[in-house]
Specification:
861 residues, 27 helices
Length: 861
């Protein structure tokens, strides 16, 4: 065909791959295994451009590794439980199951149109009883091992909807649906004991060398290991001391106030006889229960009128506040505030006109001593601190701890910010918790032979509260132990549980046990996991915990589920508003020859806003289906890979998509117009190559080497740029057309066959058409990755970075393999003429010059 027709080609090759079972991961395959997985989607109804980018990145890895000789596992499933399905049931009168399965069918078809190399035979949906039956078994194993337990906990309660709300569902202290003021209630909840592994989860982060440092930092902060002290303060008029936890005992002499949580027993006691205190505590409870909500709120306090005596200065007293920023779950639920050395405490002190006393002198003597609007949180030596004066911060911490312990007024303590994972949800569309409540026997596990505990199909969604709690018969059952009347647990599991082990189920998705040990030990850990940075903490941390729980209960033997992690950037688009300030879809806007954006229907001017992450609320979304209809899946894939580094945000533009489409057409013309003049496939190589043919071979082998290295390092956009360059050169009559004769034809076939295989992971349909046009009867999907001859791929010239004390200041070009002494001399000579290197040296004596051959020179001064 003279023109590449994506609609025809893509249907043809997707059918061919499916017929051959081309992407099936085989458990008995002797080749080395490679498991690549993108975070599975929630079936919301349609795929979006974020999905297209995520799954394109994973597909490139899967296809590349398959070509490199690996037995690849690349599965897909659905994170299918969740509140949106229940909302659809209430708002649209459609059952959550029907809504979810309809969405899965739609999105499966859309993903298949992308030409992903998915092993669809392993597809799972977490809402299917065949999945959650095994999750219930795992819950019972966790329960038996003491990793699951039940206790009372504070929750956000919507008094109108009669349900517990997640912290994200509390908006300005009100329920997101009902608008009713949220109450804080104490209810029996199920928890997973994630804190049992806190130290291990933290220390193991250092071994996750193929995870982004940003993600590891976020998890370290979330786990929040802190070494500190419990300090006991005498409260005037009370016999019981108030115990606070602090990580800065060195600043004890700068204390200006104590603050307790609204849930602290002292706050409860004060509120009994103080209506204002009761009112303030109620305000605190309306904030929600999350640290994020509390952190974002204005820091406020209520002076209880109580005064506490300083542990080391009997004549010094500080006020005791109830504060909305103190968490009962952290430490002791009470803190002391040192305004000079903590920004939150300083803001609080200024608000309530409390004294600010500096007790750590700045490390830099030129810095001012006076504390203004910014607290000093740096290092230094102690001042205004009695027996601590002149000590460093670490020395002072140790001295305070020793004196407190000696006096029986405190002790050192290791603390974690991490709290046990509350997994109870008062919702219908989730995995039922497999226990019953018996008035005689207490909490009794459902026998394994009776699993799964299925959700009732006839639940109603036209009333407030939990549909399982409201069901007339489902919750009524008999006790497995005494056979007497009992009641089913009506809470369901947090949907994060579903996604905490799905990667293991993919290894044996039809097994009669949750995890088939032999198979999972062969496939896991996931070699490459791909997903958004927004999952850096919750999902990834829960999956790491769950893996440890699975190991503790004998289901697998590894510690970490994901060997390497890649977090891709988001996809954005310009935003549009009409003259009335209403958001418009990009499809409703046209840009005229004058550059003015106008509404397609009304012709009225449109205001163009900045590029934002694609979202339904801003209407700056582009339908992937429409793009595939217009340009084909390969165009969408190519644009996603070419526009920016995959870890950075990408802006979708019509011009970019059109440019990608033009390249796909140009690529096809290159193959189509060259094919007839080439020797037959697998023609033996000539014994000798002329200069032009040799030049083309060198270009081919260098391109293969560079693109291979780029794909290994996730530099997909760089690989794309090299392919552009390669194609341009092959189209250049002075290069691609200069090689004549048998040797030239052979070299050109080598180049085009390498090109087809290089682009196969990225634009697989086009690559298949090209491979076929080159005369092959095999499919390029089954072909090995092109090898390169190191002698041909070797560059004659290397560009070296020149650093001064480790910072890049310039570059030099040297012959590849140049002796170290010559490189050193050249770098020093260039230092005299290159301004940036010269300025960095500034006449300072050079201590040594370190040369890493063909890579970098570091001048140490």
């Amino acid at each position: 065909m003279a023109r590449y027709e994506p609609a025809v080609a893509e249907r043809k090759w997707q059918a061919a791959w499916a017929q051959r079972g081309a992407f099936a991961g085989r458990d008995d395959d002797p080749r080395p295994k490679y498991y690549v997985l993108e975070m599975f989607p929630y079936p919301s109804g349609r795929i979006h451009m974020g999905h297209v980018r995520n799954y394109t990145l994973g597909d490139v890895v899967a296809r590349y590794k398959r070509a490199k000789g690996f037995n690849v596992l690349h599965p897909m499933g659905w994170d299918a439980f969740g509140l949106p399905a229940e909302n659809a049931a209430r708002d649209k009168g459609i059952h959550p199951k029907e809504w979810t399965l309809n969405n899965i069918a739609t999105m499966r078809g859309e993903l298949q149109r992308m030409g992903l190399s998915i092993d669809w035979s392993r597809e799972i949906a977490t809402c299917h009883p065949g999945y959650y039956a095994h999750q219930q078994k795992l819950f019972l194993d966790f329960l038996k091992a003491g990793l699951a337990y039940r206790k009372k906990a504070k929750v956000n309660w919507d008094p109108i909807d009669q349900t517990v709300l997640a912290n994200e569902q509390v908006i300005d202290g009100k329920g997101w649906r009902s608008g009713a003021p949220v109450e804080k209630r104490e209810l029996e909840q199920w928890f997973f004991s994630i804190t049992r592994f806190a130290e291990d989860l933290l220390s193991a982060l250092d071994r996750l060398e193929n995870w982004p440092e940003r993600v590891r930092v976020m998890q370290r902060n979330w786990i929040g290991r802190s070494e500190g002290c419990r300090v006991q303060w005498d409260v005037l008029g009370r016999t019981q001391r108030l115990e606070v936890y602090t990580t800065r005992p060195d600043t004890l002499f700068g204390a200006a106030f104590l603050a307790v949580s609204a849930d602290h027993p002292l706050a409860t006691e004060v509120a009994k006889n103080d209506a204002n205190a009761r009112s303030f505590i109620a305000e605190c409870h309306s904030l929600g229960t999350s640290e994020e909500a509390i952190e974002a709120a204005e820091k406020r306090g209520y002076d209880t009128g109580l005064r506490a005596r300083h542990p080391f200065r009997a004549n010094e007293q500080v006020p005791v506040f109830i504060a909305n920023f103190v968490l009962m779950e952290y430490g002791t639920g009470a803190i002391f505030g040192c305004p000079a050395h903590d920004q939150r405490d300083l803001d609080f002190a200024r608000k309530y006109r409390l004294p600010v006393r500096r007790v750590v002198a700045p490390a830099n003597p030129s810095e001012p001593i006076e504390i203004g609007d910014v607290a000093y949180t740096g290092d230094g030596v102690l001042m205004n601190s009695d027996f601590l004066n002149g000590m460093t911060v670490p020395q002072a911490k140790n001295e305070v701890a020793m004196r407190l312990e000696r006096a029986g007024r405190g002790k050192r303590e290791l603390n974690f910010r991490l709290r046990d994972w509350g997994v109870s949800r008062q919702r219908y569309w989730g995995c039922p918790i497999p226990v019953v409540h018996c008035p005689r026997c207490g909490v009794v596990p459902v026998p394994e032979k009776d699993l799964p505990v299925r959700l009732p199909e006839d639940a109603r969604f036209d009333q407030s509260g939990n549909p399982l709690e409201n069901h007339p018969t489902w919750k009524d059952t008999s006790c497995p132990s005494c056979k007497g009347k009992a009641r089913r647990e009506t809470d369901t599991l947090d949907t994060f549980v579903d996604s905490s082990w799905y990667f293991a189920r993919f290894c044996s998705p039809r097994a009669s046990v949750p995890i088939e040990r032999k198979t999972v030990d062969a496939w896991l850990p996931v070699k490459q996991y791909i997903g958004g940075i927004e999952h850096a903490v919750l999902h990834l941390l829960y999956a790491r915990f769950f893996t440890r729980g699975l190991r503790a209960t004998g289901h697998l033997s590894l510690d970490e589920p994901f060997e390497a992690l890649f977090t891709q950037g988001m996809v954005g688009h310009q935003t549009y508003k009409d003259e009335h300030g209403k958001w418009l879809f990009p499809s409703e806007v046209a840009v005229g020859d004058d550059g003015q954006a106008r509404h397609k229907e009304t012709g009225r001017p449109v205001t163009v806003g900045r590029s934002e992450k694609m979202s339904k609320s801003l209407k700056n979304v582009v339908d992937p289906g429409a793009i595939i209809d217009k340009y084909g899946a390969d165009t969408a894939r190519w644009f996603m890979l070419s526009d920016s580094p995959p870890e950075r945000d990408l802006e979708w533009t019509d011009a970019g998509a059109a440019g990608a489409f033009r390249f796909v057409q140009r690529l096809w013309r290159l193959f189509d117009e060259s094919a007839n003049a080439l020797p037959r496939p697998r023609t033996p190589a000539p014994k000798q190559f002329g200069a032009e043919a040799a030049r083309m071979r060198t270009l081919t082998h260098r391109t293969v080497a560079k693109v291979s290295a780029d794909l290994e390092r996730f530099r997909f956009n760089v690989a794309v740029a090299r392919i552009y360059e390669f194609v341009n050169t092959l189209l250049d009559p002075a290069v691609g057309g200069a090689a004549k004769g048998a040797d030239g034809g052979w070299a050109r076939r080598e180049a085009l066959e390498a090109l087809a295989r290089l682009v196969a992971p990225m634009i697989p349909h086009s690559a298949e058409e090209a491979w076929q046009r080159l005369g092959h009867t095999s499919i390029v999907t089954d072909e090995a990755w092109p090898a390169f001859d190191e002698a041909l791929a070797r560059e004659d010239v290397a560009t070296l970075g020149v650093q001064v004390n480790g910072k890049l200041r310039g570059t030099i070009e040297v012959a590849v393999g140049m002796p170290e002494a010559e490189v050193r001399a050249l770098a020093l000579k260039e230092a005299e003429s290159q301004e940036r290197i010269k300025n960095a040296l500034e006449g300072k004596p050079i201590r040594k010059v370190i040369v890493v051959q063909d890579r970098v020179v570091n001048i140490v001064v």
